[in-house]
Amino acid sequence: MSELRVAVLGVGKMGAFHVDSLSRRVRGARVSVVNDVDTDRAEQVAAPLDARVETDPTAAIAATDVDAVVLASPGFAHEKQVLACLEANKPVLCEKPLTMDEASAHAIVQAEAELGRRLVQVGFMRRYDREYAALRDLIVAGDLGSPLMMHCVHRNPAVPDSFTSEMAMADSVVHEVDCTRFLLGEEIVAVTALKPGATSSAPSGTSDPMLVLFETESGRLVDVESFVRTGVAYEVRTEVVGENGMATIGLDQNLLLRREGRWGGRIAPDFVERFGAAYDAQMQAFVDAAGTGTVGGPSAWDGYAAVAVCAAGVEAVSTGRRVEIRLGDRPEATR
Ligand SMILES: NC(=O)c1ccc[n+]([C@@H]2O[C@H](COP(=O)([O-])OP(=O)(O)OC[C@H]3O[C@@H](n4cnc5c(N)ncnc54)[C@H](O)[C@@H]3O)[C@@H](O)[C@H]2O)c1
């Protein structure tokens, strides 16, 4: 088959990475159209690629020189743009979050189900990280016995002062939500956010760190340390505690250096370095499936469930209460 022609909407930090991935590292695709509300930015990105700029996002999606779409616009723009992709019958890789609220995310699940074929993949790239994939294989093979608990760590070195506790839930902890559902294979039914004393670098009123607790359908517990101003590096770790053993990923042990009487390693400074290979693997899988007119990987339902858990998480942060999650109907076609 000829190369898949992809429109990329939103070419900020994430979109620029996806453009680079499609142009230089992924096989079988090229960027044909670039769209961004910042037209200068779109021109800059498109120029070296021989791609054209389309200023209207809906026209970019519907264009005859576009076979598939990558959305890396801000979350508030996703709902309209994903619906336009469904309308145009085009496969779409949509960055998280799928949409900004549960009702609109559920409407996308239903709209896709009515089409009768999967067209929406949500950008939960950790599922394509080799450590997460290995951990999932271990669990599915039964090597740990039944998983009982999970401990997760999500640390960033720094964030702007404007990054609130609610944003930490919606932007960072959202990945732990998807990992929990991916690794344990069940839904999260309740979320609680505990707030220890804040680090002195957090603006007044911001809870950082937080300890977030998920309860799953079968009663498993998952704790997540969310700490986004550590001043250290980007650290994402997961330990699954099972009946027959424990397994940990994210130990940054790629290289252990022994030199001048000391030993140690290096921690990735940011998510692009830590998960760069996973983003590329995610994109390759999207391109391969989109070439056959469909998608695999994290689904619209996965995107919807994450939106619902994060909405509950945001409520848990602001009220200090345990918040239960009641998901809407799951269309048979999405199972
Ligand atoms: N999967 C991950 O790990 C990960 C990491 C970072 C960001 N993201 C997600 O990627 C998306 C983009 O994040 P970012 O960090 O690149 O943000 P960013 O602000 O760097 O880039 C967003 C770009 O979208 C453009 N834009 C704004 N409104 C638009 C619209 N209506 N249509 C098209 N373009 C529009 C902006 O001009 C900007 O260039 C967000 O949904 C974010 O949550 C995911």
UniProtKB/TrEMBL annotation:
It catalyses: myo-inositol + NAD(+) = scyllo-inosose + NADH + H(+). Keywords: NAD, Oxidoreductase. Its EC number is 1.1.1.18. Pfam families: GFO_IDH_MocA, GFO_IDH_MocA_C. Residues 4-124 form the Gfo/Idh/MocA-like oxidoreductase N-terminal domain. Residues 136-325 form the Gfo/Idh/MocA-like oxidoreductase C-terminal domain. Involved in the oxidation of myo-inositol (MI) to 2-keto-myo-inositol (2KMI or 2-inosose). Homotetramer. HAMAP family: IolG. Belongs to the Gfo/Idh/MocA family. This is Inositol 2-dehydrogenase.
